[in-house]
Amino acid sequence: MMRCCPLCVEPTTAPYHRDRRRDYYQCATCKLVFVPPEQHLSAAAEKAEYDKHQNSPHDTGYRRFLGRLFTPLLAKLEPNARGLDFGSGPGPTLSVMFAEQGHPMAIYDLFYAPDASVLTQIYDFITATEVVEHLAQPGKVLTQLADQLSPGGYLGLMTKRVTSPEAFARWHYISDPTHISFFSEETFRWWAQKNSLVVEFPGPDTVILHKTLT
């Protein structure tokens, strides 16, 4: 059965890992590791998993966790830069943190804030924290977000990265049934080059992509 990569749509993929519940394939082109569509949760089952999350802007530990992206991205923004938090979850927090620093943010979440009108606007920066690993069509979504950036804008992502097949086999991250797309540094570099973005890695699970002015 031919399995096209959900990031770059290339057909050359190969088995990468298998556990008791799922299969994982890797794309030969962009190196994305992914779970095949027939093994994804239903939308209802996926939302039931997210409903268990207890994130809140009043949780200092959660703020500290988000700080891994918030701090390096904040340092790059012009005053009053306007942002979008994509995949804001049941307890939007990053948007509150940026608003406290004078950067108003719209929010979007398929399940908790499904106002699609915010996806038709242009932003100075967009964040997606712990989102891309949940995407069935990461290529389509990331291209859409890049298109929503103004020239000079930033796309900030948080997701844990694939390092090796050996580490992958022991990785707690794959035990979450909502995690279906797994990026490596090589994958992000490939995608950035393909979309004419400059990529940097402020930390082991953070990525900032810059839409340059030229």
From TrEMBL:
Gene3D superfamilies: Vaccinia Virus protein VP39. GO terms for molecular function: 2-polyprenyl-6-hydroxyphenol methylase activity. It holds the Pfam family Methyltransf_23. Keywords: Methyltransferase, Transferase, Ubiquinone. Its EC number is 2.1.1.222. GO terms for biological process: methylation. The keyword Disulfide bond does not apply. InterPro entries: SAM-dependent_MTases_sf. The keyword Mitochondrion does not apply. It is an enzyme of class 2 (transferase). This is Ubiquinone biosynthesis O-methyltransferase. It comes from Vreelandella titanicae.
